[in-house]
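README, section 4: Worked example with a bound small molecule

Sections 1 through 3 covered apo chains. Here we extend the same pipeline to holo records, where the ligand is supplied as SMILES alongside the sequence. The molecule in this example is NAP. Nothing else about the input changes; the structure line simply encodes the ligand pose together with the chain.
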Amino acid sequence: MKEAQTGEFSLKPLRGKTAVITGGARRLGRAAALGLAQAGADVAITYRTSQREAQHTVIDLASFGVRAVALRCDVRDPKSVKAALKEIARELGRLDVLVNNAANYETADFEKLSLAQWDEMFAVNTRGPFLVSQHALKMLRKSRGRIINMGSLGGLRPWPRQAHYCASKAAEHMLTRVMAKALAPEIAVNCVAPGVIDLGEARASAFMKKMAEQTPMRRNGSAEDVTAAILFFATAPHFITGQVLAVDGGLGL
Ligand SMILES: NC(=O)c1ccc[n+]([C@@H]2O[C@H](COP(=O)([O-])OP(=O)(O)OC[C@H]3O[C@@H](n4cnc5c(N)ncnc54)[C@H](OP(=O)(O)O)[C@@H]3O)[C@@H](O)[C@H]2O)c1
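The generated complex, written as structure tokens:
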């Protein structure tokens, strides 16, 4: 019995904890949500347009025997963020891990990049994590919790056709470091910066093949690689804060 209890504890390091993943209905956010649920956390995901996928993800999350909810939240809109966090507090009662995952991505030639495109990118990728974190502070302080921002290799390396995306992610990396200092000692703040992640999309297969050849580890990343890094920061010593961890197979070296 004692052995079973010990084994259970090590497999469910987040039992009794609660996590929120913005943009968690699909792709990497969904994978992170499932990883956190598998580790025992009750999970709230937010979505903006993917309501149907969010409902499916909630069903899959609940299959791990945890509480799971999905809420609509537009991270650009302070009212929407406030309402979502209020609802999360009501539904789950506490918050231990916030994953700022929701983001925007597009390519554009520098000469043609419009102000609207620039502002939209920053509103989602930089102002969004700031707003959601600010509204989650009270609960995170109380639990001595963690914030995990989803950055990007594009925030560490310049990609010429993604000036707005790269700049917004670089700003998110700095926001991670600023928040780590500003919110210590109650809240640990870290960032996972994925490189090229292969989500199995057929239209991306030629690009993926080319990128795998250029990557020291000779493959692209997977959703599992990124989820493992998120789980690391969700369970790591609280002493680890302000770090930006590239998950890129060495591509950025
Ligand atoms: N995939 C990669 O290879 C890669 C590489 C480097 C970094 N990253 C980073 O890792 C994270 C996840 O990547 P991903 O490819 O899975 O992301 P994604 O599919 O581009 O976006 C994730 C979710 O963000 C949500 N979202 C967009 N605008 C929003 C808004 N205004 N308010 C609320 N939610 C909004 C969307 O929700 P709805 O669908 O509900 O509208 C979307 O499903 C992102 O931060 C991304 O920048 C990814």
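What to look for in the output: The longest strand covers residues 188-194. The two ends are 48 Å apart (CA to CA).

Section 5 describes how to batch many such records.
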